[in-house]
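Appendix B. Chain record.
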Amino acid sequence: MNQDITRAYRRISNYVNKTPVMTSRTLNKLVSAQVYLKCENFQRVGAFKVRGAFNAIQHLIEVENPAGIITHSSGNHAQAVALASRELNVQSLIVMPANAPSVKKEATRGYGAKIIECGNNPQDRVEKTEEVVAEYGYPVVHPYNDYNIIHGAGTAAYELLTEVGELDFILAPVGGGGLLSGTSKCLKSMFPKSSAIGVEPLNANDAYLSFKDGTQIYPSVNPNTIADGLRTSLGDITFKTIKKFVDDIVTVTEEQIILAMKFLWERMKIVVEPSGAVPLAGLLNLTKSRQKDEFKNKQIGIILSGGNIDLTDFFRTLSLSIQD
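Structure tokens predicted for this chain:
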């Protein structure tokens, strides 16, 4: 087992939830396989990101004991850093794009963070973060391109594999690549013959293009996807890790993401955000395509990365129906 991931697990175990693993007979029949869903939507802050945040910030405290932390994020990592900073008694400054979901902004403020807004392009986050660092001098906890974030994220797969045993495949979403890096690194250290597959929106397929090229990172330019947590580009650390441990990256359409969300909500009563449903969308698509036989009768794990979705319109519709 990878020592970095087990060390991270020991470091964060008192702060994070051991999330449930769920199954569905209907899903198993649909894909002709045994599927285990690791439900990080039930994690603190509603996403796996809290694992990496606690690991990275605790490591920084051990090394340099900073007064504050700076990061940039569209939402889930922002909430995770805000919560971890509050519980570990350091200030948090979060650079967030203006179009980040309001539910994620409100939660981030609720955990005590100071939000600094920036433009909506991935590069805008980087430039604004540099300005904030110059002003405050706090260290940056990168949302994915950081080994401590990666190893913290890998503890979700560690819990899954410890609970259910060897799997033939694990599918995880990929945006910046932190979760996929940690998941694949954990999987290969425990079961070297197993396969790790990343799944990405077709409308934000920079990781797919980078992986297939194998020599350079393709930037994420104005990605138009409902999976807001997967709009970022790979970093140099995640690109290197993914090339080493990941077997394939596949893409899914916006329609396929919505159908996967619909299945999880309606059939399993699991509320996930679009980014969290992406790996299930990938499995459903793969089992209908050329790779159908590859997955038949296999043991498959899926990381449902988060469940933070704005339900304002849904409840507004219900309220209007009462008034009618």
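Further analysis of this model is presented in Appendix C.
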